[in-house]
Structure formats: C-alpha cells, structure tokens
Model the fold of this input.
Amino acid sequence: MRRETTRQTGRVDLVVTGGTVLTMDPEETVVENGAVAIRDGAIVAVGARRAVESGFQARRTIDASGRLVLPGFVNGHTHAPMTLLRGVKDDVDLMTWLTNYMFPIEKRFVSREFVRWGALLACWEMIASGTTTFADGYFHEEEVARAADESGLRALPGQGIFDVPTPDSQTSAEGLARAEKLLSDWSGHPRITPSLCPHACYTVEPDTFVRTMRLAERYDAPVQTHLAESPAEIALVGERYATTPVRHLANLGVLNERLVAAHCVCVDDEEIAKLGSSGTGVVHCPESNMKLASGVAPVPRMLAEEVRLGLGTDGAASNNDLDMIGEMGSAARLHKVATLDPTAAPAHAVLRMATLGGARALHMEDRIGSLEPGKRADLMVLDLSGPGALPLYDAASHVVYSARADAVETVIVEGRVLMDRRRLKTLDTDEIRVRVGRFGRKIRAALPE
Amino acid sequence: MRRETTRQTGRVDLVVTGGTVLTMDPEETVVENGAVAIRDGAIVAVGARRAVESGFQARRTIDASGRLVLPGFVNGHTHAPMTLLRGVKDDVDLMTWLTNYMFPIEKRFVSREFVRWGALLACWEMIASGTTTFADGYFHEEEVARAADESGLRALPGQGIFDVPTPDSQTSAEGLARAEKLLSDWSGHPRITPSLCPHACYTVEPDTFVRTMRLAERYDAPVQTHLAESPAEIALVGERYATTPVRHLANLGVLNERLVAAHCVCVDDEEIAKLGSSGTGVVHCPESNMKLASGVAPVPRMLAEEVRLGLGTDGAASNNDLDMIGEMGSAARLHKVATLDPTAAPAHAVLRMATLGGARALHMEDRIGSLEPGKRADLMVLDLSGPGALPLYDAASHVVYSARADAVETVIVEGRVLMDRRRLKTLDTDEIRVRVGRFGRKIRAALPE
Done:
C-alpha cells in the first residue's frame, strides 16, 4: 500500500470502519479492525480504525464490524442488456443457439428500450453482487451509459461495431458514427468511460479495426474486443488471414495498451508473451467458456507472464448471471482441474483478478481496483456470518470459495452508497421488474417450438 | 408422474399451493399453478391448484405463488463435521494439505463435541440451501445422527471404517463395533438411516471391506465409500492389488445395490458398465474434484449408461461449501468444457442428479427424490424473483445456471417445515455460531506458520 495511514486530517464525507480491510494493494495489505475514509468520491485514508477515526470527522459512518471491506469487483467483460435473454435457450450447440435463437431474437427485439431495461436489470444485479465497474459491449450503448449513470455504477459502455448489419447499424461506418457520438457525448464523465467494441476478428474487417483504433486514439478511449475465444474462431481466422487472431491483431497494429481482449482461450506461449509485452488487457470469462464449451484459457501461464488479467462474467445469455463471486469460484476451481495442479489459480490470485487485475485489464489501475489513498472510493462491505462461511480462517479464500453474492451488504461507488445493507438506493427495482417481465413474456411467446 | 392428481380427499396437514411445481418424476412433469398436499409426512396429492385445494382441507397452507416448488436436494456425499475445517488451508498440494493440515488437526481436535457442532453447522447450511437429505461419512457419527435428527433433516450418517488409527477407533474392528452400535441404535428411525463408510480401497483391507458388507446386510444398511477418486488412488491400488479400484471391489463382491460410491473420476467404459449393471450408486462431486485437481468424472457417459448417478458437495474442507445449487452449476459447466460439447450435462439432467438421481444413488428412490403421491414430503419453495434470475424462460435452467442458494425460501422434510421464509425453525443458530467460533479460534491458533 502506498501508505498505511495518511497524515491528513479534517472533515470527510464517509468512514467505513471496524471491518477487516482487504486493500488488494500490490502488497495485498490486510488491516484488521481497519477503516477507510472517503472525501469527494476519493479514498483519503486507509488504516487502523483508531488512527482513521481520530484523524477524521465523518459526516457519515458505516459500521463494518465483523465484516470484510474490499474493493468493488471489476466485471471486465459483459453485455449488460442480454440479461433479458438470460436462459432463453441453453444446452444446445453454438450454431443452433446463434442461428435459431440469439440472432432472430436480437433482430426482432433489440431496441433502445430493450437495451435500457436490460441494462438497468444488469446494474441492479451487479450492484447487489458487489460489482462497482463493468465493461460492456452491445448495441444502442448510449442507453447502457444512461442506465449505468442512473445506477451510480462505474462503466465502460462500448458501442458494438460489425461489418454485418446489426440491430442499430447497417454498416461498420454507421457503427463508427454511433461510437463517435457516444464518445463525444460522454467524454469527461467522472464514472462513465465511453468506449468502442469492434466485435471480433471474424466479424470486423481489418481496415474497420484500424479505423476503430484511430477513433479511439482521438478520444483517448479504450477498445474492447472478443479475441481467440474458441477453436471455431481460430479456424475462421486461419482460413481468412492465414494466421491466428492474436497475431492478426498484432499485424494490424492494434494490440496495445488501449485494447481490452475478452476470452483469449486459444493462445500459445508466444501469443501470451505478446499480450503481456504489448500491455493488452485480457479478461478471462471462465463460466461462459465452460458453458459454451469454448475451452480453457491458459490462466496460470498468463498470471506467470504478468499479463494485465481481469475477470468477467460475459453476458447473461451465456453464463447465466453477472455474479463475480461465482465467477471467482469457477476460475479458481477450473484451472486446478484443467492443469491437474491444486496450487493453480490460488484464491488470492483470483481475487486480485476480480479487483486490481480487472482495473489493470481496463487500464484504470491508477483510479480503481484497490483501496489506497488517492484512488476513487469504489468498495463493498461483505458479511461472512452466514452458515456457509463459518468459521473464518483466510478471508480471501472465503471470498472465493465459500461466499455467495448475497453476502454483499453495502456497495459504494465514487463515495456514494448504491446499496445500503442490501437496500438498493438508486434504482426503482419494482419498475425494472415490471418492464423486464413484459419483455420476457413477449420474447417467450416468439420462441420457436 | 404416477397420477397427476389423486382422487383422495379429506383433511391434510399442509398444502403448498400456487407455485410452478417441478415434480422431477420420471416424466419430469411440471404443473403451473400447482399444489402439493401433505399428510403424516407423506405426499398425498400433486396437481393443479384448483383440484388440490377443492379436494383437501389443510390445517396449514403455504402460498408459493410466483415461486417454484421442487423436491429437496439430495446431497449424496459429504463429511458434515468438516465444516469446522472450511478453508483452513487451500491451494496447496494434496500431500501438504493432508500431512501438515488435515491429519494433525483431525488428530488433535476431532472429538464428539467437534462432530456435534460441525454437523449442526452443516445442517444449518444445508437447510438454508435446500438440501433435505444428506449422506455422510466421518467419525463419531452418532453425533451426526443426533444433529441431523435435531435439525429435522433426512440423513444417512456413515461410521468411518479404516485399517489405520482414526480419531474414534484404533483398528477397523473397533470401527466396525462402533458402526454396529450406530446401526442398532438408529435402525427404524423414520429419517435417520444409519450406514457404514469404509473409507477407500487404499485405506481399508479387503477382508475389512467384506466384513463391512456382511454387517450392512444384517442390518439392511447402505455402505458408502470413496472410489476411483484420483490418479494417485489408481496408482496405489494398482501397486497393491494389480487392478483398478472398481474391479477390486467387484472382485471382493461388494459392488452391489447396497453400495454408494463417491467420485468415480478415474473409470473406464467397462467399469462404468459394471457400476450401472451392479446397481451401485455413484455420487459425482465436481467442485471437490476440481479444487483438489483430481480430474473430471465421465458424467455424460455415466448418464448414457443410466448409472444411479447423484450429486454431492463432498466435505466443506475441499469445496468449500455444502451448496447443492452451486454444485449443479459447476457440474453443468464442467462437463461441457471437458468434452468441448455444449450439449453435455444439460440443466435438466443435472437437476435430476441433484434430486431423483441422488435418491437412486442412495437406493431410496421409492421414498424421496421427486414430488409424487406416496413419497415422503421433502420439498422446497424457491423464490426466483431476485435480479439474477429475471426474466424466467426455463425453470430448470434457471435453477441450475442462475439461482443462488439464498433463493431457497422454505424447506420441508417429512412434512415438517424446517425453514419458513428463510427463518430456521429447528436449530439454535446463535448457539451454533458461538460454538463454531470457539472451535475456529482454537484451530486457527494451532495452525503451522
């Protein structure tokens, strides 16, 4: 940690006090009976309860006694509006799923309204499970930006860009124009970082990828993509470009510190080194990779190469939830059985992937991902007093292997309390429930069979 | 289902009404706006709400409108008292874990009192996550029987039998004597089925296995064991008996309808056929197999062979929870990625494993595992109105992929309500918390480092 307590004193907006603070700073400092002081949306002190409480007068105090205090989770890859398609069809092969379900349903139903209510449902679900930042890619992303803003979450909405017609654009030029509007409308927002989401190497032409990166550079915006997700993608890209997806992007000059690449399942050692040395962010999505039978990303090797490695849920249509605690458990278990090594992907490393690692993957580690003075105040209070988490020996291990999302008690983003002892403060959940139910009934009625 | 509604009428103790009833009967009948009538601990009718409500006068009615009603989960393999060792040491290799942690801690701390409070904590956790039956193996199992009885759960406590000294027996003869006392003390109990648990082929001598089976036959009791769990076991058994674990037990004549074999990770096609044709129950424990890096059990092939296949959490020291909903999600995802087939282990099959499959694995399918007239009334009400389960397209898919254990609202065993809208009715959870905390502090203080 930069400094265990600061010498600053004075008035602050909020002190979260009395809990075991897992700072997730680079030294993974843990402060028993600690406190976090927050002013103007930023962390001004982290340290022993006594020191923080005597140094600062707080307008509000949250008692976290007997609880854990940790950075909010960074969901590095999702498609928030797809909550409306959660479980619409599972356990079929990928082509049936896409051709008979996802594509026709999206074509028929995806509108600004669909995106709005799907994104609001996603924000509700993410706040209630401890996520404080999410990176998103879909259509009509201005509605994701608006929903995230209303919810109080930190987000990177990414306008989807394809060289095939989509629910919001007939061409990639149209997609890029929508993207530019998103960038220009939301640039400078304290929590919403507009971004671009060229879908993948097999749906986006090389010059579109390059134009997307140029646009991103002009606005200093991040670029998200799906990369090396499955053997099918490897085959497609191999046929078309006689190379692999990672090498293809490297050849285009777009493998860089602005890029956030989801999945990276099918990557060899040389590609892992390239991802690491180029500063590309990588987001591991174990539950989606498992459920869609894409394969197992070489996470232990990426950890060893110090790739900027985060964790993501992917969309709810392929997971089927946005629960980062469940995702951590799946990551920690999957890599052990995949390598037959019970020391692979240890709990501490996986918890880092979900916090500071995710911040690094999104190139935001100077602002979020750990509890350190100077960073934005994105954090949660976790109550591990339920029967499934007793007794407590190792906090990080419990968060990864034993906790469930309902242990998330209080969630704070940019110093603002979004959930207070399980009560949502920013969203009208009754209205979301009604609107989502309506979409669900309409979509259900339109399903084949 | 045997019959969708019965013609019986009259007074009943309880009607659970208004929910979507997933009967999990062999036809997987689903009754929308259905009801279940319960008398003297048994199900007397399952059918449409109107028919059941007009046919029966209930002393008590539970409104399950907008909710799912399904059979309680059958946790086919656990070590309940090991909740006290939950997360005591994770992410180390198996020999370090056993030699430096599990064995010395168990030697020093496992007593009747340890078993009692660990088992009560486990019962609390299992009730709160929808388990209604559990099969257990450990030491001082009379205390597991007592705890399960007090909690109201259905259980198969299994006295551990080893040919090495254990916390409750110096020899296997002593273990068998303890087992016989357990069988004789608890035989005939409506919910507690005492059983025997010879640990594994590499810790139990051949003649001990045979003597255990003889004793079980005399009391008509089930026998639980660990079988073909890991490559290390295959190597040990190969060295000692020049065969595989499954063939070794077949040679001993103990592979039969009384046996419940946990794990079966390392089994070939011939062994799967043997397990199927012998009527052996098999309990798949995916999270334990993943976390301990044991390997991936060939579940799709076992399903195709119609092996009596259930699902279990294993003990909390190697999982680290007793949550069958999480276990179902892990099972459904693991077999897809392990086979690279997204249709493997579909949600419906996995939900069956956790209910009727588990009942078949424990040889109790005539009494539990589905909601059918004549079976014991072991069921739960599941509330899927949380944000992570909206909207609803396919109930079974949601239970497996989207639900979390906190959606379990009401749990009924043998017609008795053990949890009523998340309030535990049978256990003093404050006292359990205090006792468990004391054990945790003592064990923590004794850990190496």
Confidence is low (pLDDT under 50) at residues 1-6 of chain A.
